[in-house]
């Protein structure tokens, strides 16, 4: 029984059909159909009921799905364990929000490099939601996200508390300006929208940017306002053109920390990373 066939079977179930599964797996529909047919022949059981153009999971398919998830989980854990052999070698895949990467990650990466000189470090930036999903999918070993995070598959270790502040250009009135924020999935976005609603802002339009300097640059020239960690604003090239105003603690205080899989093997490099950030 090939792992590729099991991954294909799982994709068909989770995506709801052959076409959607082929798109997720970046292959053609005939490959997906062929793998499922060979899997059924190998097992001697029908995995799906065909209903017109749709598929419905058969009882034997439901049994296989449970084992498939466990087998693929074990395969990912095995790959991770082999990839992360030893305390000074292997690979560590790290995710971080862009603001966290700019403020905190460099000194932590320096500590990992010093303590684990043979470790290859790979860093990815994205929103908190996207990073959590990548950790769950075993595409990242750990990620630094805004919390708190409550998920049955994830551990969350709080490391710092960021203070969000309202930011706008000198001489501008945020009540009359649109909000400028990160794309969907950013934890700061939800707080900014909540603050906007609570203050009765006249303009509810929003502009989205993918980088913090892009956001602050637009805010600095008076195109809108935003919520951003105070330290990010203070270190920005646009700081001299910005006005910083405090917001209530329930909006301002954002616990931020490291997430990792509960069932993943403990990694010395991840402990070094967390310790460097907490100290």
Automatic annotation (TrEMBL):
Keywords: DNA-binding, Transcription, Transcription regulation
Domain of life of the organism encoding this protein: Bacteria
Classification via InterPro entries: LysR_HTH_N (IPR000847), LysR_subst-bd (IPR005119), WH-like_DNA-bd_sf (IPR036388), WH_DNA-bd_sf (IPR036390)
Domain HTH lysR-type: 1-58
Gene3D superfamilies, alphabetized: Periplasmic binding protein-like II, Winged helix-like DNA-binding domain superfamily/Winged helix DNA-binding domain
Keyword DNA-binding: yes
Protein family membership: Belongs to the LysR transcriptional regulatory family.
A Pfam short name: HTH_1
GO-annotated molecular function: DNA-binding transcription factor activity; transcription cis-regulatory region binding
Protein name, entry field: Transcriptional regulator
